[in-house]
Amino acid sequence: MLKKYPESVKIVFKNYPLKNHRFAVRAAAAALAAGRQGKFWEFHDELFKDYRQLSEEKLLEIAHRLGLNKAQFERDRKDPEILASIQRDSQEAVRIGVTGVPALFVNGRRISNRDLRVMDRIIEKEKEKVQKP
Prior knowledge:
The protein is mainly alpha-helical and 133 residues long. It folds into two domains: 11-99, 3-Layer(aba) Sandwich (Glutaredoxin), CATH 3.40.30; 103-133, no CATH class. It has helices spanning 24-35, 40-49, 56-65, 70-77, 80-95, 116-131; strands spanning 104-106, 109-111. Strands 1-2 form a two-stranded antiparallel sheet. α1 runs antiparallel to α2 and α1 crosses α4 (70-77). It is elongated and about 55 Å long.
């Protein structure tokens, strides 16, 4: 959808660390810390490859593999602003009724069917709303 609608679609990522995953908040903070070094999506993708095997060692291994500055990474993932950002995202998710991840919204409307044809139709309808005088 990003390729098809580069001027109309953007991805907004929000953190919603699941309560039953004991390492979720630390993993979210690590991804945001990596983002400060321009590697959010790379870190994110690595986390989800092995999300059941997350550990402190795994976070450091991913950071090393991605070439992150270790000292900055350590500082940033403990930064109160990053932790507050995760908290704000989580509160917003609860407020709008998110119960699991991933959750997909188009212009504030929850989309449960992630079929690309369905999303394409939804995006086209949203574009029509905006283009009408």
